[in-house]
Design a protein that fits this description.
18 strands, 335 residues, globular, alpha+beta, 34% strand, 4-stranded antiparallel sheet
Length: 335
């Protein structure tokens, strides 16, 4: 589990909003994860103790934040550029913008800017019911509450806000046993079939969510996980209700995700690109091998005996020469 702790420590250094409470919970989370059996699913653990960053659409000019006003919650809409509050909505109860990764990645706002979903924060595990608040972001008003039996966390939302993706925890003692479920906002019900990668429905893909990015259309949500065996990226198609898991077998240090068109870059702990994924094929792009300097290539291509033998001979000749000079000096001194 050391790579997970290393990745989270590196992430904390680059993420000022990662709270002290989150850092304190990391060792406990790792210990629990190590002791529990592996799940057969692709999305994972809740980002406990992490305050979500302000939430906005891709390239949007407005963002949303929540603040506690006990016993209620205040939702604020403000400008991204200057943080000027434009509107505010007071909600009964405790709600927050969902954090979906340890780098404070937020989620919950549909790409069309019309639907915003807030979640009731977790106080313990498991909880008997989970409550969500659905906000009409255009009118800045409460549409309704969603109350579900069981323990859920938020994962993603489709571009038109019709489908909401949730993590449904299935065990009272093992929070790595879960199913990814889609909730139909129009029908107001959970869809029966869980969302899985159809090509690898039973693969062990447990881990901690490190970073999240979405495409400009809000259809694909990419989450970087620090896994038990190796890191991986979980690509969720929020329109098609399907997912793809992309293994990163050769990656050993995680820093985050960056999306550049159809290229998804995985950053290492130092900030450099350690892997790239073609989002049109969901395949890792082969990285060109680093070419060695000419001197190294020459040395690597010459048998070591051809280098060692002349070197040894030169050293031997130098030693004989020193002994001869020493003997001549001694004879000259006697004379």
């Amino acid at each position: 589990m050391q790579p997970l702790a290393t990745d989270l420590a590196a992430l904390a250094r680059r993420t000022p909003g990662m709270t002290a409470r989150a850092l304190l919970l990391v060792p406990a989370s790792l210990a629990i994860l190590a002791a529990l059996p592996a799940p057969a699913a692709a999305d994972g653990l809740p980002a406990v103790g992490v305050d979500a960053a302000p939430l906005s659409t891709f390239g949007g000019k407005l963002e949303y934040v929540t603040a506690r006003a006990k016993p209620d919650t205040v939702l604020r809409e403000r400008t991204v550029a200057r943080g000027r509050v434009l509107r505010a909505l007071r909600l009964k109860g405790n709600f927050t913008i969902p954090a979906v990764a340890y780098d404070r990645s937020p989620s919950g706002l549909s790409a069309d800017g019309r639907t915003l979903v807030l979640i009731s924060p977790r106080r313990h595990f498991p909880r008997a019911t989970t409550t969500f608040a659905v906000i009409d972001a255009k009118r800045m008003g409460l549409r309704r509450h969603i109350r579900l039996r069981g323990d859920f966390s938020f994962d993603a939302i489709s571009p038109d806000g019709r489908l909401v993706y949730l993590i449904n925890y299935l065990s009272k003692s093992d929070f790595t046993k879960y199913a990814v479920r889609a909730y139909d906002m129009r029908a107001r019900r959970l869809l029966r079939d869980p969302v899985v990668d159809p090509s690898e429905p039973g693969e062990d893909m447990s881990g901690l969510p490190m970073s999240r990015v979405s495409d400009a259309e809000g259809r694909w949500a990419y989450t970087l996980y620090s896994g038990r065996k190796h890191p991986f990226v979980h690509a969720l198609d929020t329109e098609g209700r399907t997912a793809v898991c992309i293994d990163l077998d050769d990656v050993h240090s995680l820093g985050g995700l960056e999306l550049h068109g159809t290229r998804l870059d995985v950053l290492g702990g130092g900030g450099g690109v350690v892997a790239s994924i073609d989002t049109s094929t969901h395949r890792v792009i082969p990285r060109p091998a680093k070419r060695k300097p000419a001197t190294e290539e020459s040395a690597a291509g010459i048998p070591w005996l051809l280098i060692a033998a002349p070197t040894a001979a030169l050293l031997l000749l130098a030693a004989i020469s020193r002994r001869r000079r020493s003997a001549e000096n001694v004879r000259a001194g006697r004379a």
